[in-house]
């Protein structure tokens, strides 16, 4: 008898394909990154990220309402900080009346059910454009996590549901968990960027926030693109330190890490389809080189197949409308 197995039986039409489909995409899977600026009634284009915008707080509230209406459940907040407020101490990062703090409060007030995830790292606030305090050309670990933990606490006080440290310093998850517990924010979650690589795919984001490193690169803290063991170890360690969700970043090029982790941990895994991935697809689509929507769908479903539950994506709104 030949062929012994007719695999095509389960692919013979769309109905049967749907019946055996292992993964799908739902608006519940997405985290929507948002860029916030000072001012009123402002919606600014981001040159490096076509069709993506920076919004002032009044407009971001409207945007978040729209996102909620189309079924999206979480937003990830980033701010663009005025040059005059940047220093090497993270002063503005812990200013209780700072831009992100005000943004968290306003969004929480207008759409209380929306899960607010706030980015915790010093780069948008740093006069050096680094994620930590700089001394003699080096990024100080312990001094940085002290400030990050206060930054996290100030976000929690404003109503952030989940704190997302994206800095890649050692020990920051435990430091943040401790300060949150001590201040009775028992229910504030931590989504750790546990495996964040020193990737060239962040360039459009750094342009959006004006947060490029002023000297050197981020290779002393972000992961080496040649390695996977460190990513696995650090992620397991972050879970031990108290992370509720772990994140792998960037996306498509790092799905091997997602897949390895999926077989080893039971903590929800998030994956970040970063700015460079967004801009590449946008550019190709503007040139008419590919069927943009089906390529986005294919990439997003690959995150699910690899084992991610959550996907942070600049395409979230566009795709969720279609699901
Ligand atoms: C900053 C931060 C970065 C991103 C998220 N948080 C940039 C960086 O580490 O330089 C990148 C996101 C993207 O490219 O979409 N800590």
Provide a short characterization of the protein structure.
With 323 residues, the chain is α/β, with parallel strands linked by helices. The protein has 11 helices and 12 strands.
Describe the structure.
This protein is an alpha/beta fold. The chain has one domain (23-322): Aldolase class I (TIM Barrel, Alpha-Beta Barrel), CATH 3.20.20. The chain has helices at 14-19, 57-69, 99-110, 141-158, 172-182, 203-209, 229-241, 255-262, 275-286, 292-306, 316-322; strands at residues 30-37, 43-45, 53-56, 74-79, 115-120, 133-135, 138-140, 162-165, 189-196, 245-249, 269-273, 310-313. A hairpin with a 2-residue loop joins strand 6 (133-135) and strand 7 (138-140). It is globular, with a radius of gyration of 20 Å. The mean pLDDT is 97.
The strand count comes to 12
Structural class: alpha/beta
Distance between the first and last residues' Cα: 43 Å
Mean pLDDT across the residues is 97
Could you list the spans in which at least 5 consecutive residues all have pLDDT below 50?
none
CATH topology: TIM Barrel
Share in β-strands? 15-25%
Going by CATH, the architecture would be Alpha-Beta Barrel
By CATH's scheme, which homologous superfamily applies? Aldolase class I
- Name every ligand kind in the structure: ligand PBG
CATH domain class: Alpha Beta
Overall morphology: globular
Radius of gyration: 20 Å
The spatial strand order of the largest sheet comes to 1-4-5-8-9-10-11-12
For the report, how would you describe the main beta sheet?
Answer: 8 strands, parallel, barrel
């Amino acid at each position: 008898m030949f062929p012994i197995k007719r695999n095509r039986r389960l692919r013979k039409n769309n109905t049967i394909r749907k019946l055996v489909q292992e993964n799908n995409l739902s608006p519940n899977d997405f985290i929507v990154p948002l860029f916030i600026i000072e001012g009123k009634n402002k919606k600014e284009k981001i040159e490096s990220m076509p069709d993506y915008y920076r919004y002032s707080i009044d407009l971001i509230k409207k945007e978040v309402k729209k996102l909620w209406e189309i079924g999206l459940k979480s937003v990830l907040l980033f701010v663009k900080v005025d040059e005059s407020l940047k220093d090497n101490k993270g002063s503005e990062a812990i200013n209780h009346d700072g831009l992100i703090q005000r943004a968290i409060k306003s969004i929480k007030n207008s759409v209380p059910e929306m899960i607010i995830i706030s980015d915790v790292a010093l780069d948008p606030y740093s006069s050096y454009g680094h994620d930590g305090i700089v001394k003699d050309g080096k990024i100080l670990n312990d001094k940085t996590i002290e400030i990050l933990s206060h930054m996290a606490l100030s976000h929690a006080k404003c109503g952030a549901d989940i704190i997302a440290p994206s800095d890649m310093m050692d020990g920051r998850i435990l430091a943040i968990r401790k300060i949150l517990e001590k201040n009775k924010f028992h229910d504030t979650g931590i989504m750790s960027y546990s495996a964040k690589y020193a990737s060239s795919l962040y360039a459009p984001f750094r342009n959006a926030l004006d947060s490029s490193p002023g000297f050197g690169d981020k290779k002393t803290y972000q992961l080496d693109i040649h390695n996977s063991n460190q990513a696995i170890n650090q992620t397991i360690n972050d879970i031990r330190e108290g992370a509720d969700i772990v994140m792998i970043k960037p996306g498509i090029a790092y799905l091997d890490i997602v897949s390895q982790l999926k077989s080893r941990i039971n903590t929800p895994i998030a994956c970040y389809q970063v700015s460079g991935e967004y801009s590449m697809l946008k550019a190709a689509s503007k040139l008419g080189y590919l069927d943009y929507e089906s390529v986005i769908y294919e990439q997003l479903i690959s995150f699910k197949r690899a084992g991610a539950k959550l996907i942070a994506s600049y395409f979230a709104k566009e795709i969720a409308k279609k699901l």
